[in-house]
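User: Hi! I have a protein structure encoded as tokens and I'd like to know what sequence might fold into it. I'm fairly new to this, so please keep things simple.
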């Protein structure tokens, strides 16, 4: 019985289970922290996808065990339009308690609440996570669902699943989840889902999808202009994807690039469709598109009707580590 009150033992338990440290002090007890906060909230640790924001804003929430606290961070796109910039934290709070179990929720040094966050499980595995202080919402009010870590790269596939930053013209950068088909035999039915959206195509909407099993077999003349690419799209020639194979990729002068292209070759090109709509999501439709993986961490999508190509960079490690 006395052994279970040993804070140094509980500090080791927390280190082993949650891969973090605890500093014992006169005001902090790892044993009380584990009982009051870590154990009740351990199922919430991880990455969560928000459903309470239709467009813009932090689309991801990271809940993790840190030194002497649980930290809740809202992850957002960079303020620039550069996909090479890192993801940023747009909001952060910490949840901790003293050695008597008195809860303290802080934003920086400011204490914003002294009661545990409320948790309500909704339909479809969604979570309502909020803080109430004196019957008023304080600091955070989220509806979200867990975001599973993507599967690793599969042999003979040009790219792995993951979370990417994508360029969307005047809307800036958005967070996209690339998902491969369950069968994992071809790229057909792979799709990109918006984690953050914009007033035209909101979050949780498919932004692009691949419609062919085999990749296109282009010739240099097929990329002289957007019109030539459209001819290839509507009169396709195919070739089986081959691991390690490459194609020259030289975008035509009449194609608008959202981001500078640093690649001269790609792994292949697949016919697809991309979703567009008027402001407010009015009249949504899918237009011809081409999916172009350049590298394990980069791909592009050509929106043929818009005469533009969006670029995407993998940010999975930035989110899950």
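Assistant: Happy to help. Inverse folding works backwards from shape to sequence: for each of the 321 positions I chose a residue that suits the local structure. Here it is:
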């Amino acid at each position: 019985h006395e052994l279970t009150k040993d804070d140094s033992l509980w500090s080791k338990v927390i280190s082993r289970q949650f891969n973090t440290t605890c500093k014992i002090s006169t005001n902090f007890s790892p044993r009380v922290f584990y009982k009051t906060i870590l154990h009740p909230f351990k199922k919430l640790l991880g990455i969560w996808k928000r459903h309470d924001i239709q467009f813009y804003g932090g689309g991801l929430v990271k809940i993790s065990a840190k030194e002497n606290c649980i930290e809740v961070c809202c992850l957002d796109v960079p303020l620039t339009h550069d996909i090479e910039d890192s993801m940023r934290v747009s909001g952060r709070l910490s949840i901790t308690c003293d050695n008597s179990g008195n809860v303290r929720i802080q934003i920086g040094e400011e204490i914003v609440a002294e009661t545990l966050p409320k948790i309500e499980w909704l339909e479809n595995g969604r979570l309502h996570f909020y803080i109430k202080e004196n019957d008023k919402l304080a600091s955070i009010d989220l509806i979200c669902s867990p975001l599973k870590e993507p599967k690793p790269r599969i042999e003979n596939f040009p790219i792995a699943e993951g979370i990417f930053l994508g360029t969307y013209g005047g809307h800036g950068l958005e967070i996209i989840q690339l998902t491969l088909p369950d069968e994992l035999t071809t790229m057909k039915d792979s799709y990109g889902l918006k984690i953050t959206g914009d007033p035209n195509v909101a979050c949780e909407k498919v932004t692009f999808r691949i419609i062919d099993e085999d990749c296109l077999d282009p010739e240099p003349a097929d990329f002289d202009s957007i019109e030539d690419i459209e001819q290839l799209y509507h009169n396709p020639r195919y070739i089986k994807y081959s691991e390690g194979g490459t194609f020259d990729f030289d975008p035509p002068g009449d194609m608008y690039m959202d981001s500078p292209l640093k690649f001269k070759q790609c792994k292949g090109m697949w016919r697809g469709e991309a979703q567009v709509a008027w402001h407010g999501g009015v009249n949504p439709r899918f237009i011809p598109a081409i999916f172009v993986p350049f590298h394990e961490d980069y791909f592009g999508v050509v929106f043929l009707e818009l005469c533009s190509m969006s670029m995407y960079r993998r940010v999975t490690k930035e989110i899950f580590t």
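A useful reference point when you look it over: The helical segments are 7-18, 30-41, 226-234, 316-320. Feel free to ask if any position seems puzzling.
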